[in-house]
Amino acid sequence: MSGEEGARGQGHGRRIVDGLTAWLNGEGIHYIQLHASSDGEPVYKAAGFVTGRYPGMDLFTTPQDTRPDAQPDTRHDTPRGATQG
Fold it and tell me: Distance between alpha carbon 54 and the CA centroid of its chain, in Å?
């Protein structure tokens, strides 16, 4: 049994989510958008998260060199972990 498996089911994730959402609420942040794997879905649902209205989409851009003599970057590299579609 790994350390991760031994920690499962102890309520650690729920305490972290509850603490973070309470802190954000106290800071005046009343909308939280969550992007996570389905593994933690029971914890998130128990904390009050609901399925969003819109599916998420991501865009990764390449920082551009803004110097006047810089050549434009015409490569279309895909960031590590992302897929081209």
Answer: 15
Average pLDDT over residues 38-64: 87
CA distance 48 to 20: 13
Q: For residue 7, what are the CA distances in angstroms to 12, 19, 26, 40, 71?
A: 8, 18, 29, 14, 51
Give the pTM.
Answer: 0.55
Q: How far apart are CA 15 and CA 18, in angstroms?
A: 5
Question: Which SS3 state, helix, strand or coil, does residue 33 take?
Answer: coil
Q: Are 26 and 48 in contact (CB under 8 A)?
A: no
